Amino acid sequence: MDSGESIPKEPISNGPGSDNSPILQIIDFDLIRDTNKFLPVFWQAWLFIFGEDRSAMQRITIAGEERQATEIEGLLYWYLFDQSSKIRIALYDNEIVGFVIYNEVLETVLAIRILYALPGLVGTKTGYRLIDSLPGIKTVIFQTVREIEPEQMFSITRGRQVKLNETPEMITWAMNWEK
Predict the structure, then answer these.
(1) Which residues, 6 or more positions from 51, have their beta carbon under 8 angstroms from its beta carbon?
(2) Do residues 56 and 90 touch, judged by C-beta distance below 8 A?
(3) Residues with Cβ within 8 Å of residue 48, at least 6 apart in sequence
(4) Number of domains in the chain
(5) Is residue 50 helix, strand or coil?
(6) In which domain, by residue range, is 81 found?
């Protein structure tokens, strides 16, 4: 899971001319090292984005063993193992402040499953830096729930997104990635 790759720490930009921002580090998610710190942020993200509390207990199977876990923990394992997704996390002072869950569709094409930064960091380019940290990225595909305007993602795309598909529930977008 963990490639050991760590992106060097860099300032979080609060807009043009900002140079006294806190230090942000972006690393690959490691299931053993990061799960306990990640689950509360993932739960908060799910509640914020979808308005669903995923703290209820359920039975899940991991590596052939059944056990009790929260729904959010089940979702984490679903993304990682059933969907073969990868996760990058943004750290500030060793605390998770944002993350991106993604799938590599082709060599340079990424599907963003979930992008989240703590509400206090929206507008600090945390989401942009999470996506930009992914190597070789040329095209990004992402979906939005029809009723929820993804302000953070649209601030990153700056109007370059193209609508690929529309269903009653979801809209699928694509955009070329620009540094």
Answers:
(1) none
(2) no
(3) 116, 119
(4) 1
(5) helix
(6) 6-176
Strands (E), the chain: 6-11, 23-28, 57-62, 65-70, 86-92, 95-106, 109-117, 139-145, 162-166, 170-176
- What's the half-sphere exposure (Cβ side, CA atoms, 13 Å) at 88? 25
Does residue 105 lie within any of the structural domains? yes
Q: Please tell me the distance from the alpha carbon of residue 177 to that of residue 21, in angstroms, as a whole number.
A: 25
Q: Look up residue 158 and give its two tokens.
A: 């700056």
Number of other residues whose CB lies within 10 A of the CB of residue 60? 17
**pTM, whole model, 2 decimals?**
0.82
- CB atoms under 10 Å from CB of 68, counted, come to 9
> Quick one: pLDDT at residue 88?
97
Residue with tokens 């300032």: 11
Please determine, for residue 49, whether its predicted confidence score (pLDDT) is greater than 50: yes
Q: How confident is the model over 97-129, as pLDDT tens digits?
A: 999 999 999 888 999 999 999 988 877 888 888
CATH of the domain at 12: 3.40.630.30
Please check whether residue 1 lies inside any domain of the structure: no
- The per-residue pLDDT for 179 is 73
Q: What rounded mean pLDDT belongs to the chain?
A: 83
